[in-house]
Amino acid sequence: MIQGGFSELEGPVWVASQKALYFCEMGASATTGRLHKYTPADGKIVVFVDKVGIGGLAVDPQGMLVAASYDTRRLSRFDPATGQRSDVPGGSSYMGTPFDEVNDAVVRSDGNIYFSDPSFATPMGTLPPSFYRLSPPPQSTVTRILMANNANGIALSPDGQWLYMATTDGGPSMRRIALAPDGSPMGNADVWTEPTSDGMAVDCAGNLYLSIAGGTNQIKVVSPTDQALGSITGLGGGYVTNSAFGDDDGKTLYITTSQALYKIQLNVPGFPN
User: Fold this and answer.
1) Do residues 15 and 65 lie in contact, with contact meaning Cβ atoms separated by under 8 Å?
2) Closest listed residue to residue 39, CA positions, set 80, 86, 87, 96
3) DSSP labels for 120-164?
């Protein structure tokens, strides 16, 4: 354990330019959360941005933090050096209707942004819970990928050819869908064995690290073909929410839970980063 005593953590992401891990802490309301920054070199965790409501973080091709902002019900960007916030063009609505509660996001290397929009805290009723794609500029167009109750975690395969979508609390099972060269979804989504997951990490071999929802405190590791590989346990009380690979060699898995931030250094010879 790196540090405990948090209210609820989410959305870890490693930013190579800063040699730091950024992660979210939920607040009592949509505007009382925080973004934290952890630098392994000195072991310090500092409040990076205060009084925000962010559910998930990703890094875009320009090295900016892309935030699933449930406080403003849209996609935002944060400069990882200064903390300056701006809106992502096109990331505030679908066909003119505002999003409910943008929850998690992932960015492909070409700038496509994929994100989930559930209604966990205060249902707005404006849009059905769904997964979406925001195409890169200059189009910056939002299209719906899949309607899913309690749409939550989202991740990409290392080559950007597959999108993984997970739900919690009674939604449909884990789904995987193929992506075209332009980033648009192709065909129907495959249904996977695991019924739910909160956040997800992916290693360089394409294995997924699923944060199992429903109060269990473990990460299940599955292959890109939905084969169970094992699990990570021993994460204390509460429940696991998300994970992300980081550090210079990419062999440290950072894990957020409802109470603490953990890390596991994966130094097994030959283990994928």
Assistant:
1) yes
2) 80
3) -SS---SS-SEEEEEPPTTT--EEEEEE-TTEEEEEE-TTS-EEE
Q: Would you state the structure tokens that stand for residue 18, as one six-digit string?
A: 């800063």
pLDDT, one tens digit per residue, over 128-169 is 999 999 999 999 999 999 998 889 999 999 999 999 999 886
Residue 249's φ and ψ, nearest 5 degrees, are -95, -5
Are 172 and 118 in contact by the 8 Å Cβ rule? The answer is no
> Residue 134 and residue 154: Cα distance in Å, rounded?
14
Domains of the chain: 3-265 (2.120.10.30)
| Predicted confidence (pLDDT) per residue in 71-118, tens digit | 999 999 999 999 999 999 999 999 999 999 999 999 999 999 999 999
Residue 87 pairs in a beta bridge with 76
Measured CA distances, 54 to 9, 36, 51, 114 (Å) = 10, 11, 10, 16
Spatial separation of the C-alpha atoms in residues 112 and 133, rounded to whole Å: 7
- The whole-angstrom separation of Cα 219 and Cα 197 is 9
Contact indicator for 90, 111 with CB cutoff of 8 Å: no
